[in-house]
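Before relying on records like the one below, remember that each one covers exactly one chain. Contacts with other chains, cofactors or solvent are not represented anywhere in the record.
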Amino acid sequence: MVNQKFDLKPQLFVGVVTMTCRISIGGLLSLSGILIPALQAEEDPNLKISLKDGSWMVTVWPAMAIFGSMLGGWIADTFGRRSLLLMCQLPISSAWGLIASAPSYWVILIAMGMSGFGNGALNSAASVYLCEISHPKVRGMMANLLNIAQSIGMLLSYVLGAYLPWRFLCWTLFGFSLVSAVLITIFTLETPYYLLTKLRVNEARNNLQKLRGPTTNIDEEFNEILERKLRLEANKLANQISTKSIFTSSRFLRPFFGAGVTFILACFSGIMVISLYTVNVFQESGSSLDPYLGSILVMSFRTFTSLVGSIVLTVFKRRHLLLCSSLIISSSLFLMGGSNYIRRHFFHIPIEDKTLNGTWLESNSTHDLSEGFKPALWVSTINNWIPLLAMMTMYAAHSMGFGALLKLSCAEAFPTEIRSKASAIVFVFVDIALAGVGKAFPYMLEAFEFYGTFWIFALTTALTGIYGFVTMVESKGKTLVMIEEQFEEKRMKRKNLVLQNSMENNRAQPETTQVNRVG
């Protein structure tokens, strides 16, 4: 079935329509990077904030996403993945309109909370939806559409926010979110996997045929999904297994402690926080490059590498790609911290002073700065370009491996009957972690300084990649049914091994008893 010919265009079209909702989320994700420095410079006392005040904007988003994830998983499994996609458009569109017309910072926080709720619910549906409509050969590429869309949304937000008033940015993306809702309503289909869980067999077959193209023979793929569903139902009846009991079984726990925990640990890598504070990160790094221009360059490169990532995901194995990309990201974060460390300890120049940027002075130097030193060319390069190049490298590795794989692996790993709920559980922990790291970031800069904070992120990223490589299963080129059966085979092997050991112990016990009697 994996090697069966199929028409890519129908499922790709549905996937592209679905990704439009993620463009709005990408815009909201990077909005704090635009709004925090803009509101710091505001003259209106109702809108003016400090960096620590701005951290609440970063925190309320994932905090409210926790509740969205909790509700989203239940809605997706009860009413369908497509239904949840449609429901999420209301809080997201409303948030853009509220921010655009906000008279005070409190209204912006409320709107960010609404959008966070919508994002949390959407996370439970979008990845699962794309995985379930995709052919195994292109599932990695299709799931990466969300990563591409998020990068486009972030880039759009930075481009508009750098050169236009922030309210204009919000009204523009408010209009885009309405268009996205209309497109999703008209052109998307419910997934065959969900329809079969509700025993809507004819509708499931019709939708699969539409997704694979009218001339594609879907018998083998459809029968595989249907037979798997019937076997599971028969097993439930024979063993009195409830859906709730699956959450305490290895069918949930193994993928959770593999792909799920890897995703949760990745929140402490700092990449999401850097996305939320991009302009501030450029300002803190010591680079004299305009922070808005730097952000635009980084997001442009991220969008390009997201497109390349669709190809990479179809070529390389998931686990190897995760490990390699995490080590590249870790090296980039370490380099950013090292560049800042050198500047702070060997340049006796405050970060804010751009006039002497690049002047190299040893820590024991007695030179009078008033004499005027010409900055060495290589020193200027370190100050101005290493943060930019390091961030570009970091986002390239994130787009082509680390970031693209995390959501995909969670959506693939869990059994069909609990896939949305299980993914939602993972996202609850992810949102809790993001809320904590987002709020802690300004305080980490104070406690550990810029370089120390980024070195902590570098270490965490490397450990996350190693953990994921060891605990996750390889899923490239396999159908969702094959992945489920792979976990089932491992469980049965362990069960048979325990049973075999138990039988051997029972055989040995009578022999020992007989020897004791003879003695």
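The chain has one domain: 8-361+374-483.
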